[in-house]
Write the structure tokens for this entry.
Amino acid sequence: MLCFSLYKKYIFLVGFLFSMESNFLFAQDNTQLLVEAVATFHAGNTLKESEKLIANFEKLAINNSNIQTWLPAYYLSLIYSKLSLKNNEHAEQYADKAIYWANTSLSNNANDENYCALSMAKTAKMAVNPYMRWLTYEKSIYAALEMAKKINPLNPRIYILEGTLTLKMPFIFGGGCNKAKPLFLKAQSILTKQVPQKVLPTWGNQVLSELKEGCPF
């Protein structure tokens, strides 16, 4: 009887250790997939490449592994926002998904990056029909940026998004290049001090380079 009891304990211990090892290897695989997906995100993507990237981030978001759980949803929100702003045919659908993933990411971690993602997603939703939707979405777009600023005023992406909104706003409402320049310069100054990261958000330089073409600063 004693031998049988010891045998059961041995089987339990082996099973527990195997489970621990499997979970560790699974987390390693997910971390590597996240690193690769983020690198691809920063490389810039075609629509077809974006679809594959979305599949990878969705896999990570659904698995909800021990890696920083908000990151896959965060990047999904950014991808869908960009697709919405570039694709008139499916802009509404992409914007809705951007908002969904931004809120999902915020539910995991209410940090400054996720509020930036939410602001960008709401901007994409507004941009589907800006003349009809500006008054509806203006408050929530800027409120998300203000929340991000309260959490981390040294996040350069806040000022990139704020500057882009200012740039595209009509001059009579306080918009235009001259009003946007100080925000872009502030973002650029912060970005020069930003330490490169494998998976944490560091985007901004490429966006500023594109903005410079139409608004030199």
Residues 2-43 form the longest helix (42 residues). DSSP finds nine helices and no strands in the chain.
